Amino acid sequence: MYLHLGQDTVVRTRDIIAIFDLENASIAKSTKSYLSQAQKNGYVVNVTMEMPKTFVVCQIDSKTVVYISQISSATLKKRTGFIEDISNV
Predict the structure, then answer these.
(1) Domain total for the chain?
(2) Is the residue at 89 inside a domain?
(3) What pTM was computed for the model?
(4) What is the distance between the alpha carbons of residues 7 and 1, in angstroms, rounded to a whole number?
(5) What's the order of all strands across the beta sheet hosting 54-60?
(6) Which residues, including other chains, have CB under 8 Å from residue 12's CB and lie 6 or more apart?
(7) Which helix (H) or strand (E) holds 73?
């Protein structure tokens, strides 16, 4: 299954390691450090022209990619379970 992260970006759900709320997660010093290091190493892909709400960490072909999205983490989480919910009906 695929998850739409914004604009023209989709990722396979099996590649997703974690989905973080940017506002809450960026309070921690370790998270700020991780995002800064990922940016310096070129692992960050910004998929929004709006205010970012979420960052999604993916492992794609043994490479870590961090996507910055305007879609809330709650919405992304709901979308990842959409097909499973339908199959349970």
Answers:
(1) 1
(2) no
(3) 0.86
(4) 18
(5) 16-21, 54-60, 63-69, 44-46
(6) 1, 2, 3
(7) helix 73-80
